[in-house]
Design a protein that fits this description.
With 921 residues, the protein is of the alpha+beta class. It contains 13 helices and 36 strands. Strand 9 and strand 10 form a beta hairpin. The longest helix has 42 residues.
């Protein structure tokens, strides 16, 4: 008889924490008593790429008792077997991946102390016996381990939770406040004259008033008063329902993820590995006061590594959500479509569907963000002084090369959704919600620029008159007579004053020259000859005619640069010439004066230009510093800003009620009773609101087209800069400290039109600033210490305020709302929707609304419902079969899924590779 090998089954590993990736495999080997005696070792030889586990690592699995595993280093086969305890049959069990495959299996036997011998066998007793058979075996490779099954964590308490809701307006009722506001928007319509009184009375309940009927038709509140069809939209309804949900987060197990690094260690060697995490950013600021007191502020910014925290942060920054304080926590409220059904089962179902869709997408998004949030670097060093690093020493004491993979530790987080209640709400529209919110301005003192490094121009002295000496000789030029020794005295000749004559010698008159013209020295540059200041005769007995005598003019002669003199009395005293010294007066020319003034102006201009450059640079640095400070400004607490916004909205609601006479305003007599009534009926602290985007604000949709004269909010370079001197060029950054080159947007080229120059500078940026807040390019009013939601609120066209009714006050609140909002449309028949209760049949809108308020009042005051909403915190995690339950009933957990998150921990795992194929063993 030939040996027979049969595959029996695979069974889960019964030990806690084993998961489902591996199972216990069982095979039975049959033969005769002679072929399989007691004490005979039988083994199946499986391919070496099958990841068979060592049975000694599962001491608590009794099915593996007596099993062994041996890997043949020559053939690479894995021998799994057991020693026969009874003759004729032996069952072999081992742990391997749960996934199945088909591969060739061989059978070996061996007595104790002898070598293994291959034997022929059949597959389950059929076919021809052979040395190997194709059988069902575990799949090759290492299975992906994703932790234990969800059922193992039953009873685990949630480590975090998040409350949010879905708001749905209820169609059919036309609000008096909304209707009057709509009438003002359409002054030429049939319903333009509507007042609050039109919304009260039987005619209003049945929409028999023509103006109300026109209003209903305009906004499609109902298709007609007789058709019993539901509303397709209800923008004027004053009521709605908020279905509240709670998202629970459960900590499941951890496992090692995909490899993030690899290192090898030679035989006998060791490697020191330092893991450096970049998850934390540390900023230290030091400020020294005059008392030499040092104050250090440490700000630590840690990226989110938990899906619960990331979901909370994502909800806080989502501008599409309304915010309400529910039970002391901020509940984020989503806005769903209008509900034509007033049944809580239908609204819960629709709200659950919206919740499942948004929450699943949201956790998937934040999980991906967290996955991208981690970055771990490994480096091999000999020594390190970084005390914040993690140091590992890998030592290989074997004789073979050791390989290690670094695998990141992964977390498995369970998420469940539960419906925790339904609230009746009052909704009202309010315009310009942010106009009364004050804005903060940053105090930033800019130091004056240091101008001491710029030398002031040396003052240039004014040009003064110059007195220059001029020496000349008056020669004795004798032309007649015996006085050759120049001893006589001469007087001007009558009739010729340029000749001197002496008549003392009878018959021989002596004649000398009395008129002289002297060439003056060159005129100094920049000066002109003005006059002769003085003439020194050095005691000579010579008299001169005045230099400005008519016969001498012009004198001195500027054109000839000469000086003329005429003697009126002369006695040379026996000398052939007499010395004279004149002082010539020179005055600055107009050109010289103009040149001096130009030098002064140039020096001052150069100084002023340098001062302007320093001031310009200081201004640019001040702008950059202010931008950096504004960009790094810590935002205010989100809770405080949301509280301010709710207070502003509630203030507007009270003013609206005051205008309609429902909330009297008397400074001397505060309306305590009305205030207490509103607070008793409505949960003011839980009020929420939805903002309408700014583009809904009435006014021109398209702003004026930018032109060359449009300068935006900040100064930009001139479009037509002044011409530069020939041979010069402007610096690339000249005049562009505040705005960059590309801030002017150059030219906008539209198809089929001429290029148009544009200037669109609405906000400033630097390489150090954070990205500009939402709305910066739209010209929004930005609060520098606010968040996106605050900026959206400041610029919103209007808000839809939702005021939840206090639990147990639904019926009273509905009666109060009838007095405030009227009863328009409530007398029309209610169109029954699929899933509505039977008692909604043949009722009006008002009757169904009364039934709804009564049921909500009973449900919200029933302590069993409160306990059901808090059950998870008492009993812990309850696995939801299939992951989703049809949300037909309230207060149920209806949705469940798993998120896998990375951690900042990395583990080193020893691995082996086939040297021939390179595949991991």
């Amino acid at each position: 008889m030939a040996f027979s090998v049969s595959f029996l089954n695979t069974a889960p590993i019964t030990t806690t924490g084993s998961g489902t990736a591996y199972k216990v495999w069982s095979y039975r080997i049959d033969g005769t008593g002679a072929e399989i005696p007691s004490g005979q070792r039988m083994a199946l030889a499986l391919p070496g790429n099958i990841n068979v586990q060592d049975p000694s690592t599962y001491p608590d699995v009794t099915a593996l008792d007596g099993s062994f595993l041996w890997r043949d280093p020559t053939t690479g086969l894995s021998f799994v077997g057991r020693t026969a305890s009874n003759p004729g049959s032996v069952t072999i069990t081992f742990v391997a991946p749960a996934r199945t495959a088909t591969a060739s299996v061989r059978l070996f036997k061996s007595a104790i102390g002898t070598a293994w011998t291959a034997v022929n066998f059949t597959n389950a007793g059929s076919g021809t016996a052979a040395d190997g058979q194709a059988m069902v075996v575990p799949a090759s490779g290492v299975p992906t381990y994703t932790g234990r099954p969800v059922a193992d964590f039953e009873g685990a308490l949630p480590y975090a939770s998040e409350v949010f809701g879905v708001y749905q307006p209820l169609a059919g009722w036309i609000s008096a406040q909304g209707g009057v506001a709509a009438a003002r928007v359409h002054p030429g319509s049939e319903f333009a004259g509507l007042t609050a009184e039109h919304f009260r009375g039987e005619d209003a309940r049945g929409l028999r008033d023509p103006a109300l009927a026109a209003l209903a038709e305009r906004y499609q509140s109902v298709a007609s008063a007789t058709s019993a069809t539901s509303a397709t939209s209800a923008p004027l309804t004053p009521v709605g329902l908020v279905n509240l949900f709670r998202e629970y987060f459960f900590e499941f197990d951890t496992f090692l993820g995909s490899p993030s690094g690899h290192i090898w260690v030679s035989p006998g060697g060791s490697v020191e590995v330092v893991e450096t995490s970049t998850r934390r950013t540390l900023t230290e600021k030091t400020a020294e006061l005059s008392e030499e007191t040092t104050r250090k502020t440490e700000e630590s910014q840690t990226d989110q590594d938990d899906v619960a925290d990331a979901v909370k942060e994502d909800n806080s920054s989502d501008t599409k959500l309304g915010v309400s304080a529910t039970g002391g926590v901020n509940a984020k409220i989503y806005h769903a479509d209008v509900s034509a059904s007033f049944a809580t089962q239908n609204t819960v179902k629709r709200g659950s569907e919206e919740t499942h869709k948004h929450s699943r997408e949201q956790t998937a998004k934040v999980t991906n963000e967290i996955k991208r949030n981690f970055k771990t670097t490994f480096k091999t060093v000999t020594e390190t002084t970084d005390t914040s690093s993690r140091r590992y020493v890998l030592q290989n004491n074997l004789t073979e090369l050791a390989n290690y993979e670094f695998r990141r530790k992964m977390r498995k987080v369970g998420v469940q959704l539960q419906h925790i209640g339904t609230r009746l709400c009052w909704q009202v529209y309010l315009p310009d919600p942010g106009q009364e919110l004050g804005l903060g301005d940053m105090v930033h003192v800019v130091e004056a620029p240091d101008l001491t490094s710029i030398p002031k121009p040396e003052p240039l002295p004014d040009l003064e008159d110059k007195l220059l000496p001029f020496h000349f000789e008056v020669a004795f030029l004798h032309s007649n007579g015996p006085d050759t020794d120049a001893a006589l005295t001469y007087l001007p000749e009558s009739g010729n004053r340029c000749r001197g004559i002496n008549t003392t010698t009878a018959g021989h008159d002596d004649v000398v020259q009395f008129c002289f013209e002297y060439q003056l020295p060159p005129v100094p540059p920049g000066y002109q000859l003005a006059s002769v200041a003085s003439v020194d005769r050095h005691g000579a007995q010579i008299e001169l005619a005045p230099l400005d005598s008519p016969d001498l003019l012009p004198n001195p002669d500027v054109g000839k640069n000469s000086l003329k003199i005429r003697l009126t009395y002369a006695n040379w005293q026996g000398k052939k010439s007499m010395p004279f010294d004149a002082m010539l007066k020179y005055t600055p020319t107009d050109a010289a004066k103009a040149e001096l003034e130009k030098k002064k102006a140039d020096a001052k201009a150069a100084y002023d230009k340098e001062v302007a450059r320093v001031e310009h640079e200081a201004y640019g640095r001040a702008v950059r510093e202010r931008l950096r400070l504004v960009s790094s400004l810590t935002p205010r607490r989100l809770e405080d800003m949301r509280s301010e916004e709710r207070r502003t909205v509630f203030r507007d609601i009270l003013r609206r009620l005051e205008g309609d006479g429902h909330y009297p305003q008397d400074p001397n007599h505060p309306p305590f009773a009305e205030s207490e009534q509103i607070r008793q009926l409505f949960d003011v602290e839980e009020m929420l609101y939805f903002v309408a985007p700014d583009y809904w604000r009435p006014g021109p949709v398209n702003p004026p087209a930018p032109t060359g004269d449009s300068v935006g909010r900040y100064p930009v370079p001139s479009e037509n800069p002044p011409a530069l001197p020939p041979g010069t060029s402007a610096l690339p950054l000249a005049g562009q400290t505040v705005a960059g080159w590309y801030s002017r947007a150059d030219e906008y080229k539209s198809p089929g039109a001429q290029p148009v120059p544009q200037w669109r500078v609405d906000y400033l940026i630097t390489e150090e600033t954070q990205p500009a807040p939402l709305g910066s390019s739209l010209g929004w009013l930005i609060q520098i210490d606010g968040d996106e939601r605050r900026n959206e609120f400041l610029n919103a066209a209007w808000v839809k305020a939702i005021m939840p009714v206090r639990p147990g006050q639904e019926v009273a609140a509905l009666a109060w709302l009838l007095g405030v909002e009227g009863s328009a449309g409530l007398g029309l028949p209610y169109p029954v929707q699929p899933g509505d209760p039977a008692d909604f049949q043949n009722k009006s809108y008002g009757g169904v609304l009364q039934i709804l308020a009564t049921r909500l009042q009973a449900a919200n005051t029933d302590v069993t419902n409160t306990l059901a909403a808090e059950k998870v915190f008492e009993t812990g995690f309850d696995p939801l079969e299939g992951g989703f339950r049809k949300p037909d009933n309230p207060y149920q957990i209806f949705d469940q899924w798993i998120e896998v998150l990375p951690t900042d921990q990395v583990a080193a795992v020893a691995v082996r590779y086939d040297p021939r194929t390179g595949q991991q063993l």
